[in-house]
Amino acid sequence: MTNSTHEQVIEQTKKWLTDVVVGCNFCPFAGREVKRNSIHYQVETGTTLEAGLQALMKECMRLDDDASIETTLLIFPNGFAKFEAYLDLVDLAEKLLKKEKYEGIYQVASFHPEYQFAGSPADDAANYTNRSVYPMLHLLREESIEKALEHYKGDPGEIPVRNIEFAREKGPAYMKMLRNSCL
Fold first, then answer.
1. Residue 102: phi, psi to the nearest 5?
2. What is the edge-to-edge ordering of all strands in the sheet holding 106-111?
3. Separation CA 70–CA 4 (nearest Å)
4. Would you say the C-alpha torsion 125, 49, 10, 137 has a positive or negative sign?
5. Cα–Cα distance, 121 to 5 (Å, whole number)
6. Strand partners, 108
7. Strand pairing partners for 106?
8. Among 157, 145, 136, 165, residue whose Cα is nearest residue 16
9. 47-70 pLDDT, tens per residue?
10. Is the pTM for the entire model greater than 0.90?
11. What's 11-34 look like in SS3?
12. Where is 172: in which H helix or E strand?
């Protein structure tokens, strides 16, 4: 992958973050970080579990070393296209964070173009709350999550419920069009 291709992947991811995640208010905390330019976008061209996990550890170290980065989106444009393979990566990533003593420091959130909540049909618009333009791991600072939640007006447990209701109200065709317009 060339640098210009990396830049295109990052621009598409930024557009998805702005138009879908912030635009639909799926994460009420993301807009602040977009404005602060405190999100690091890392493109990983490796396609194996090993490459993905190594990239995750590099991003943990980057966050360790650079307090100006609030969160990282680790993007896999060439790998983990099948959702089941991606779920294996997520599972191993969470285990690796625990093994490397990052549990409680960083947290992984998951986004994938074919994301499907357990027990939901593939065409459920609610799946678009986690459907991204590329497979990616979102690495968040636990301490920052706790601080954000302290200042959140409302019940944070209602955020996913509100997101699902919003996506279903808009419908799968609209949500798919919105996400695909970022490519």
1. -100, -5
2. 39-43, 71-75, 136-141, 106-111
3. 25
4. positive
5. 33
6. 139
7. 103, 141
8. 136
9. 999 999 999 999 999 999 999 999
10. yes
11. HHHHHHHHHHHHCCCCCCCHHHHH
12. helix 172-180
